[in-house]
Design a protein that fits this description.
This protein is mainly alpha-helical and 324 residues long. The protein has 15 helices and 11 strands. It folds into 3 domains: 1-68 and 108-115; 125-200, MDM2 (Orthogonal Bundle), CATH 1.10.245; 244-322, SWIB/MDM2 domain (MDM2, Orthogonal Bundle). The chain has helices at 4-16, 25-36, 44-76, 83-92, 102-109, 114-122, 133-139, 146-160, 175-181, 188-196, 207-238, 252-258, 267-280, 296-302, 312-316, and strands at residues 128-131, 143-145, 170-172, 185-187, 199-200, 247-250, 264-266, 284-285, 288-293, 306-308, 320-322. The strands form 4 sheets. It has a 3-stranded antiparallel β-sheet with strand order 2-1-5. A 3-stranded antiparallel β-sheet has the order 7-6-11. Strands 8-9-10 form a 3-stranded antiparallel β-sheet, with no helix packed on it. The protein binds a DNA duplex (20 and 20 nucleotides) through α5, α6, α8, α10 and α13.
Length: 324
DNA sequence: GTCCGGCATAGCGAGTCAGT
DNA sequence: ACTGACTCGCTATGCCGGAC
């Protein structure tokens, strides 16, 4: 049995030697599992907590170091605008604020686990992608992140003044844009959709091959689905469901809470109704949308004042009675 | 009445969460 | 493997409510 202190020690060692731009809690857990040869899937919360703690202490250390440096710099640059102030300004005015809220919103959101902050910068939208020849011509680069493409595209639109004066959400396409979107004008909201045809994954040297492979894979999947379909149909007809699709008897308290008169619902349906209720009553903490602030009805049902949105299934568990 | 800030809107893909 | 909701970045605009 591995002790917690051993786990913490190895975890910290691993984090210090890792690229935090790509490391996630799952990466950490897998590494520890491999190091100690044990299954840590039941220790996810613990690992997450320790990663948090590690990042917190690292951050504090950095701040202390910076404070030391700042004091040194301000001593050196007396009488003029110090570098320290410039740095702060730079951070606050990262760019002209065309969008009034987006940046702030994202800044607030990013104050979460360090692993989440960093991992998303390298994956998802920020993943480097290959561009179509038409898009390459406009962007002047063969590869770019989707977000960067959007940014540059808007810079181009503003530079050429291509927004429809009557409805500035519409973009009037010039020749290069027409070559990409194949229309004379396009709604800004449709632009991303149209763009996706010109942004390809970079996983392989040969994008065409990737596309062909994924097509083949999809076909295979469809074939498999087709062959399974009769079995699934039969299963559905028999009413055989499992997991989230299993119809569950609701506790009286939950049935009363939902107030629909139904005594049996699937887990997914209950969760959906629960979120509808939370949103309908504005019960999400504005500063952390995952945190739910219970009103009287919710307090009565769950017997807590607040809970994390992710734990809703856990809180609901005692209110489900399995039917045979 | 005007100004300002906050939020929603659309779309994309990958990943996370807890529990079954 | 699956559930539903959510986050991440990026953009401009419309609407709403609060402050002055």
């Amino acid at each position: 049995m591995v002790s917690e202190s051993e786990l913490i020690g190895r975890l910290r060692e691993f984090l210090r030697s890792s690229d935090l731009n790509t490391t996630t809690t799952t990466t950490v857990r897998r590494q520890l599992e491999s190091d100690f040869g044990i299954d840590l899937s039941d220790r996810k919360a613990f690992i997450r907590e320790q990663v948090d703690l590690f990042l917190q202490t690292e951050h504090q250390q950095e701040e202390e170091e910076e404070e030391g440096e700042d004091a040194f710099k301000s001593e050196q640059s007396q009488g003029s605008n110090s570098k320290v102030e410039e740095d702060v300004d730079d951070e606050e005015e990262e760019k002209p604020n065309h969008s009034r809220n987006g940046k702030k919103k994202n800044k607030e959101r990013s104050n979460k686990l360090g692993d989440e902050v960093v991992k998303k910068r390298s994956g998802g939208f920020c993943k480097l992608c290959s561009l179509s020849p038409q898009l390459q011509e406009l962007m002047g680069a063969p590869e770019m992140a989707r977000t960067e493409v959007v940014k540059q595209l808007w810079a181009y639109i503003r530079e050429k003044d291509l927004q429809d004066p009557e409805n500035r959400r519409n973009i009037i396409c010039d020749e290069p844009l027409r070559a990409i979107f194949c229309v004379n004008s396009i709604n800004m909201f449709q632009m991303n959709k149209a763009l996706s045809k010109h942004i390809w994954p970079l996983d392989s040297d040969d994008v065409v091959q990737v596309k062909a492979e994924s097509k083949e894979k999809k076909k295979k999947q469809e074939r498999e689905e087709d062959s399974d379909e009769p079995k699934r149909k039969e299963k559905r007809q028999k009413g055989g469901k499992s997991g989230f699709l299993a119809p569950l008897k609701l506790s009286d308290a939950l049935a009363n809470f939902l107030g629909t008169g139904e005594s049996e619902l699937t887990r997914a349906e209950v969760i959906k109704k629960m979120w509808d209720y939370i949103k309908g009553n504005n019960l999400q903490d504005p500063s952390d949308k995952r945190k739910i602030l219970c009103d009287e009805k919710l307090k009565e049902l769950f017997d807590v004042d607040t809970f994390n949105g992710f734990t809703v299934t856990k809180l609901l568990a005692p209110h489900f009675i399995k039917t045979s």
